[in-house]
């Protein structure tokens, strides 16, 4: 147990250690709610280095396989890289140096990973960011490009299997589609010619400024429900030949 509050003057709040890494050299790395990344001697419990990288918490930490690079994620959405570098050219003495800050997230960075060629981070903004280490790249290409993947917080597509319908959810409206069909048969993965094209049946707009939070279509396709942050809506869908009517319940 190491007291991370050591040498902190007039501490008015408890210091929370959010992440720990143990290096093969015997160095313990911690990140805490005071925005610090600290390096400790595990045998003596003494502080070797301390780096304040943020005014808020440092939540996550990951070490490269070679243990010469570290990535940390903060509650401000920023990620920082530390590298173990010689004190001067040709020197055997090395120190941890903060080398690269990145601001690719808008919320807490709760998870980070360090691959041999990239820094990877995931935040509460539902984005996965892959930042390549350019010094590891020999040529330009897909691996050398910054990649940001946005993941939806919830399911945005609902399926009515019996009726062969799909309900698509957008922020302010819903779309109901009937799947296309084919008379041909084939193996998995084959593209078959359609005898009937997909058909857009209904567009249902939400009233008011609130976004649609979740939605669903019943297995029979006769009911559509959706919810905003404050209200629940239920509709009855009726099919008359090629026509479709919708009634609020």
UniProtKB/TrEMBL annotation:
Gene Ontology MF, one: RNA binding
GO CC annotations on file: 90S preribosome; small-subunit processome; t-UTP complex
Gene name of the encoded protein: Utp4
GO biological process per UniProt: maturation of SSU-rRNA from tricistronic rRNA transcript (SSU-rRNA, 5.8S rRNA, LSU-rRNA)
Transmembrane feature ranges: none
Entries under PANTHER family matching the protein: U3 SMALL NUCLEOLAR RNA-ASSOCIATED PROTEIN 4 HOMOLOG (PTHR44163:SF1)
Xref: InterPro entries: UTP4 (IPR046351), WD40/YVTN_repeat-like_dom_sf (IPR015943), WD40_repeat_dom_sf (IPR036322)
Protein name: UTP4 protein
Organism this protein belongs to: Ciconia maguari
SUPFAM superfamilies per record: WD40 repeat-like
């Amino acid at each position: 147990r190491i007291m991370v509050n050591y040498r902190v003057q007039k501490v008015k709040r408890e210091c929370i250690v959010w992440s720990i890494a143990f290096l093969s050299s015997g160095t313990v790395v911690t990140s805490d709610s005071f925005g610090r990344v600290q390096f400790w001697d595990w045998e003596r419990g003494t502080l070797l280095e301390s780096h304040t990288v943020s005014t808020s918490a440092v939540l996550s930490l990951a070490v490269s396989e070679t243990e010469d690079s570290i990535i940390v994620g903060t509650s401000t959405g920023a990620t920082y890289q530390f590298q173990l570098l010689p004190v001067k050219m040709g020197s055997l003495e090395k120190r941890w140096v903060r080398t690269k800050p990145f601001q690719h997230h808008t919320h807490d960075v709760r998870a980070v990973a360090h691959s041999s060629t990239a820094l990877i981070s995931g935040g509460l903004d539902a984005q996965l960011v892959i930042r390549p280490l350019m010094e590891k790249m020999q040529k330009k290409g897909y691996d050398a490009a910054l990649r940001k993947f946005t993941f939806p917080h919830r399911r945005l597509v609902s399926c009515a299997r019996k009726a062969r319908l799909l309900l698509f959810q957008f922020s302010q409206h819903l779309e109901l589609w009937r799947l296309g069909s084919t008379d041909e048969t084939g193996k998995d993965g084959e593209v078959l010619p359609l005898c009937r094209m997909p058909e857009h049946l209904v567009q249902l707009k939400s009233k008011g400024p609130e976004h649609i939070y979740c939605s669903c279509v019943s297995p029979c396709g006769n009911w559509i429900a959706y919810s905003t942050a404050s209200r629940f809506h239920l509709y009855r869908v009726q099919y008359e030949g090629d026509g479709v009517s919708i009634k609020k319940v």
